[in-house]
Amino acid sequence: MGVAPAATPPLAGFRPETREFMAQIVSRYPTRRAGLLPLLSLAQEEHGYLTVEAMEQIAAFLGLSPTEVYETASFYTLLHFRPIGEHLVQVCTNLSCALLGARPVVEHLKQRLGVREGETTADGLFTLETVECIAACGGAPALQVNGRYYERMTPSAADALLDRLAGER
Amino acid sequence: MADTIGLTLNGRSQEVAPAATIWQAARAVGLEVPTLCYDSRVAPAGNCRVCMVEVAGERVLAPACARQVQPGMVIETQSPKAVAARRMVVELYLADHPLGTCGVGKGCELEALARRLGLRGSRFPARSSAPKPDLSSPVIAVDLSKCILCRRCISACSDLQVNNVIGLDARGFSTTISFDTNLAMGRSTCVSCGECVSACPTEALVERLHQDVAFRPDARKTRTVCPYCGVGCNVELHVVDNRVVRVTGTRESAVNLGKLCVKGRFGYDFIQHPDRLTRALIRRPGVPREAADQGDPRDCFREASWDEALDLVAARLGGLKARYGPDALGVVSSAKCPNEENYLIQKFARVVLGTNNVDHCIRLCHASSVAALIYALGSGAMTNSSFEVYSSDVIIVMGSNTTENHPIISSHMRQAAKRGATLIVIDPRRIELVNHAHIWLRQRPGTDVALLNGLMHVILKEGLHDEAFIRGRTEGFEQLGPVIEAYPPERVEAITGVPAADLVRVARLYGRAKAAAIYWGMGMSQHTTGTDNCLSLINLGLLCGHVGREGTGLNPLRGQNNVQGAGDMGAIPDNYPGYQPVEDPGTREKFERAWGVPLNPRRGLTITEMMEAMRQGGLRGMYIVGENPLVSEANIAHARAALFRLEWIVAQDIFLNETARYADVVLPAACFAEKGGTYTNTDRRVQLARQAVEPPGEARADWEIICDVAVRMGYPMPYEDLAEVFAEAAAVTPIYAGLSYARLQGEGLQWPCADATSVGAPFLHKERFTRGLGRFVPCHQRPPRELPDDDFPFVLNTGRVLEHWHTGSMTRRSHGLDALYPELLVSIHPLDADELRVRSGDRVQVVSRRGRITARAEVTEQTPKGSIFIPFHFAEAAANLLTIDALDPVAKIPEYKFCAVRVERAA
Ligand code: SF4
Ligand code: SF4
Ligand code: FES
Out of 3.40.30.10, 1.10.1670.10, 3.50.80.10, 3.40.190.10, which CATH number does the structure's domain A87-167 have? Predict the structure, then answer.
């Protein structure tokens, strides 16, 4: 499905290279919709988060409805729908991490950063989130920053990590 | 498979249908298993786990709604384990949705269930944060704090209506339902069909209109038929204090399965609008017609009693007839009126006035389709039923924006496509159905015959035609070859702009299909080549033998709720009821006997011909019932000048519309909700309507008014009720002969229904065509009348939008519809808009050789480059000031779909 020739090219909101790469990705799968997740992460890479327009254009490109795209995207905590800070701190609060002390880490981070869960610091440096299992139970409590894992977290270990990240600027 | 299987339900042996689910089997033997997420119209989702039952020997409980029965099963619906599980599930729901959450009175199913299970509350903590209410839609209130995530709305929106707007946001505790990419409902692609509202078991989704009274326990429900389009959906009108305050769909109806579109569900406020006419009006002496253009048109009139108004109407019509002869009078009947009233109106014209000058809006919508179908097959109606889309493996939709004009048929088509049928859309506009289509052919406007000839060219060349069918059931085939020889795909590509390869693909799909059906709309019929367009569709159907079997056929989707019936009842100038020609002496004699007067042997004038006759002075007086030609006619300025030449006009309507305001006498009529009668929908189904409220003031049903005028003119029409009128009409209309009110009580019947034992026909032309053999009538491509040029470079296409109806007299007086689509938008392609430096929302002036209008632009790729689209519902910027009154030579239908215009930026 999704055959419409249109005046504005599909995926008009992306850079030409991205557009080309997206088409290439889709061609690897037996069905177009199978390309959804890789396309969503490419979109996030390009814009920093998933804009409504990006999701609509991907939907049209894959022959999906916007709601199908959003349902899938919103299932994943790695995909965002609002601009996020330079460092995305995601603390796992699922079973193993919770048992081994994730909550105190979260509470500490909230205090130190002065934000609530899901918010970004005023300087745009950090976004704090709690997430479901990130498959690091062996190192619980665990968190990840921009996809990198940090395990056996304590409030002071988290402090040290944040200092280092802030200093990298 | 055996007819029934044996199993044990709550300790008793039972015989049940083998394909049944446990829930269905239980219900069949009188056991109610509670459900929450189950909707019998779609496949069970098995989400809520409220319906769990215990099956002996199984480790876990089974969902009764989804689990099929098996021979020998031992089922307990009320075992302690099942009841405990059920109570637990409901208790969990109550955590998010405590008792008393729903307050409007819609009737919370969760609460009812909790009461039934004896639950008073929940032991579990509630969700911490609940989303705020969303009031962005003018017709639907969303309050997700009341949502229990049963997902019935998702299945209503995606599986039933196939609008695919609602989804699930996030996961775990933070899950909510969401619209599109988590937009407010009013900003999403939601089309406000309200199906989710009707599915929602709580008040998370609820109607906004008249919320204060809509759910009052004393509301009465009356089942009747939707007053808008030809789909003929069955509705329940909810009435409080003689006001319609809510509309719901009838789930038992085979036509719509309870589904409705936004017009059917939310377009009812016009019934009780203060503008309704409540007294007869007589033009004040010396006030000219054009005085109605200034100020309030009501000031041109004074109120009168029925007696005075009726006496005057009878005297003036009688006077004109005596002075100029019967053919100086014309009658416009209404496709919004039921069959009985159309029967009486045409009888009044023929018997009392003595003229065949009677017509209705069929002239302006599908006259060419009907002419072509009657000429080639012998019957002018849709050959299939709308639910037969589920039996077709290939469905072609050509020149029909079905989603906006026949919404519920479109929803059936989308469901069929979802279930695997190949949907092919052929349309210059990127209509909504394209989203669901496998192939879309975007032809240039006005090149339909070439495209169809191209398809036939490929089919013949590749030998995909049905020789046996052609030999046995058709004539004139030998004339087809030489014509379509001239349309090889490459040439057709040059004419139509459709790539040759796509043409070949479609030809093969249609030619090889097991059962293919074609549906079309006014994109085909409203052209000077309208009859040719439709004949070409018929040629295609005959060529492949795709007519006369289930799921195969040729289907003009009829516009008005009773345009099929008005034609059936003879409200057309050339035929008596049942398409029996007035010029046939034998038929005439039959009707002279039935009606007891000598009849006029000359065929009458069509609406479009009446306009010409007014202009030339041949027509002196008009009786216009429920029509608004000064918005709906092509080239209105011309039509207005013609109408103003009439000596005398009587208009009968529910509003003082843009035509009635120029009349000499205006008679206040009752609307659909205020009377009974029968309506014949687009698939020939005759359905019974029922009165729900009393008419306002002194307004009366059209049939009563017509009868009173007839009596005053010396021809008594003493009918007790509409059933008696129907019986008389059926007696002289062979295709209705077997119908009676008694037989129409349930789902109605589809004509032809020749006698009291016939059950009607879902599809036509089974073993033979109505006229005997199907006739090939090959046509060559001819250009539209007025082509674009340097001064007028754009093609103007006109039509309708989902939220409005015809001249807007009803929909623009319905609060919800007006709020959803408040003003006219001119659609223009982005590249054209760039060139004109116009953005969405800018005001533009559209100019044709006949007139000009100003309106806001909507920049959209829906419209092809070089073409603009304007809906014709808006009298203040009437599209028909621009359109051309060039007619199809056979059917006399105007070319609404093509004329040349210029677009300018307006100040
Ligand atoms: S009103 Fe109709 S289209 Fe809109 S969300 Fe509800 S079901 Fe879907
Ligand atoms: S589809 Fe037609 S008949 Fe059905 S509710 Fe809508 S307007 Fe009424
Ligand atoms: S009704 Fe059976 S699972 Fe919901």
Answer: 3.40.30.10
Q: How far is the CA of A34 from the centre of ligand 3 (A)?
A: 30
Contact B170/A71 with Cβ under 8 angstroms? Answer: no
Residue range(s) occupied by CATH 1.10.10.1590 in chain A: 16-73
Tokens representing A96 are 């193993």
Q: Are A29 and A36 in contact (CB under 8 A)?
A: no
Residue B242 corresponds to which amino acid? N
**Nearest ligand to residue B93 Cα:** 3
Cβ distance B229 to B560 under 8 Å? Answer: yes
Question: Which ligand has the minimum distance to the alpha carbon of residue B63?
Answer: 3
pTM, two decimal places: 0.91
Instruction: Cite the beta strand spans of B327-473 per DSSP E.
Output: 329-332, 358-359, 394-398, 422-426, 439-441
d(Cα B698, Cα B667) in Å, to the nearest integer? 10
Facing B439 at nearest CB: one of A3, A7, A52: A3
Instruction: List the one residue out of B143, B95, B142 whose CA is nearest residue B121.
Output: B95
pLDDT of residue A3: 37
A92 bridge partner residues = A131
Report mean pLDDT in 10-residue bins for chain B, 907 residues.
86 93 94 92 89 95 95 95 95 90 88 92 80 93 92 94 94 87 95 95 93 90 95 96 95 93 95 96 94 91 96 96 96 95 97 95 85 89 90 96 96 94 96 94 95 97 95 94 95 96 97 96 92 95 94 92 93 93 94 94 92 93 92 87 94 94 96 96 94 96 96 93 95 93 90 87 88 93 93 94 89 91 94 94 94 94 93 88 90 91 90
Question: Which phi and psi angles does B218 have, rounded to 5°?
Answer: -90, 10
Q: Whose CA is nearest to atom 2 of ligand 2?
A: B229
CB-CB neighbours of B472 under 10 Å: 11
Using a CB-CB distance cutoff of 8 angstroms, which residues of chain A are in contact with residue B439? 3
Count CB-CB contacts under 10 A for residue B782.
Answer: 13
Contact B183/A at CB under 8 A: yes
- Integer Cα distance of A141 and A109 in angstroms: 14
Yes or no, beta carbons of A81 and B831 under 8 Å apart: no
CATH for the stretch A16-73: 1.10.10.1590
Residue A169 is predicted with a pLDDT of: 60
Tell the burial category of B173 from Cβ atoms under 10 Å away from its Cβ (0-12, 13-18, 19+): exposed
Burial class (CB in 10 A: 0-12, 13-18, 19+), B231: buried
CA B609, B613, B618, B621 torsion: positive or negative?
positive
Amino acid at B492: V
**Residue B603 CB-density burial (10 A; 0-12 exposed, 13-18 middle, 19+ buried):** middle
Q: Return the DSSP state at B742.
A: G
∠ Cα A155 A146 A75 (to 5°)? 100
pLDDT, residue A2, reads: 31
Amino acid identity, residue A12?
Answer: A
What is the Cα–Cα distance from B836 to A6, expressed in whole angstroms? Answer: 19
Q: What domains sit in chain B, N to C, each tagged with a CATH number?
A: 5-96 (3.10.20.740), 126-266 (3.30.70.20), 280-365+562-747 (3.40.50.740), 383-544 (3.40.228.10), 794-905 (2.40.40.20)
Q: Answer for the pair B758, B462: CB distance below 8 angstroms, yes or no.
A: no
Across the strands, what pairs with A129? A90
Ligand 3 atom 1: residue of nearest CA:
B35
* The ligand 2 atom nearest the CA atom of B407: 1
What is the structure's pLDDT at B636? 86
DSSP result, A26-62 = HHTSSSGGGGHHHHHHHHHHHHSS--HHHHHHHHHHH
Low-confidence spans in chain A with pLDDT less than 70: 1-8, 169
- HEC string of B225-256? ECCCECCCCEEEEEEECCEEEEEEECCCCCCC
